[in-house]
Design a protein that fits this description.
The chain is an alpha/beta fold and about 350 residues long. The chain folds into 2 domains: about 240 residues, Rossmann fold; about 70 residues, no CATH class. It is built from 10 helices and 12 strands. Helix 1 crosses helix 7, helix 3 packs parallel to helix 7 and helix 9 runs parallel beside helix 10.
Length: about 350
């Protein structure tokens, strides 16, 4: 493949990466049309080599300082730096990226991983970052709150406490995490739910310049399960084996239609890691050779690092396993034409 990377458009302001602002869509659209004409950028539907970019949860909640679950990494500003590189990557490769898909972590107040869902024996909600073990639930330390019974499908079940215990046990058996109480985050309708402004602007610019609508995929709205991966929730059945949620097989099919799939976003240790894990699992079931078409932008994703918990090593270990399985670990600053397997 021969491709000359494009310059960064003049409207891009790297100093605003960590800020939230209103996109002037008309102005950006006009600029994108002019930019496409000046640089002979053709419509994406004419691409012979189709390249898809998957952005995982590039939302204010995770990527903007001061928001609920800002991914600071070890540097303290990791997600901001990642967003800057993601934007530059999109602009430089505007003529190569055929389609952008953005996942949107999407939550309501009363969900199994938010404080309002659970209470202790005194009726108090657990504070954020509380680990809820199945042993503690079985001993009666934690139970389903009345709020959860009144506002979720759990209230229609004959034994809601049984489901909470089942969920914690099932989650522990996956070997991923215990049930964690997270701060209220990615709240539907709130600023935290929105895409980071700079990435929203870059995706919109791409849409107009390439005639390729950005695809948005929501996840996480089921009150009875967590949903780290964009492809499937953590727990899909109740204690009796009845379904409570299902995966998104169509999204997997759509992504694997591309000649190459590039993945970036937040957080490397959680939603990105388990998204790639589930994608690899599906690929392995179909054709392990498909792993070679997946490219992970290692400089455009960062692990969760909070007081008392640093997931950097786990995230790096996960990426090493993905590479061993045939996926490509690349950097956004390297020309796509130089990546292994790109022709």
């Amino acid at each position: 493949m021969t491709y000359e990377e494009l310059p960064i458009p003049p409207h891009f302001d790297a100093e605003k990466i960590g800020l939230v602002w209103k996109i002037d869509y008309e102005k950006v659209a006009d600029a994108a049309k002019i930019w496409a004409a000046e640089h002979s950028i053709r419509s994406a539907n004419k691409d012979k080599f189709r390249l898809g970019l998957l952005l995982v949860d590039c939302q204010n909640t995770f990527c903007t300082p001061g928001h609920e679950l800002f991914v600071a990494g070890r540097s303290g500003m990791a997600a901001v730096d990642d967003s800057r590189r993601i934007c530059a990557f999109i602009y430089r490769n505007l003529g190569l990226i055929s389609s952008i898909t953005a996942s949107m972590d999407t939550h309501l107040a009363v969900q199994i991983f938010h404080p309002a869902f659970i209470v202790d024996d005194k009726g108090s909600n657990p504070p954020p970052y509380t680990m809820i073990s199945s042993d503690d639930i079985e001993k009666g330390k934690w139970r389903v709150s009345q709020w959860a019974l009144d506002s979720t499908p759990l209230g229609k079940r004959p034994d809601p406490q049984k489901y909470l215990l089942h969920y914690a046990r099932a989650l522990e058996k996956t070997g991923k995490y215990q049930l964690m109480i997270w701060p209220y985050h990615a709240m539907l309708g709130g600023i935290g739910h929105a895409l980071v402004s700079c990435i929203e602007e870059a995706a919109f610019f791409h849409t107009i310049a390439r005639g390729a609508q950005t695809h948005f995929v929501t996840k996480g709205g089921n009150a009875l399960t967590e949903h780290y991966s964009i492809f499937r929730p953590e727990i899909t059945e109740d204690a009796e084996g009845k379904p409570i949620a299902s995966g998104n097989e169509k999204l997997v099919d759509d992504l694997l239609e591309f000649n190459a799939v590039i993945i970036a976003g937040q957080a490397k240790s959680h939603c990105v890691a388990w998204t790639v894990f589930d994608l690899l699992h599906t690929i392995t079931e179909r054709d392990s050779g498909l792993a070679k078409k997946v490219y992970l932008l290692e400089d455009c994703t960062s692990p969760v690092v909070v007081e008392g918990a640093d997931f950097t090593e786990q995230a790096d270990a996960a990426f090493a396993r993905f590479a061993e399985a045939g996926m490509n670990i690349v950097r956004s600053t390297d020309p796509i034409a130089s990546w292994p397997g790109i022709r």
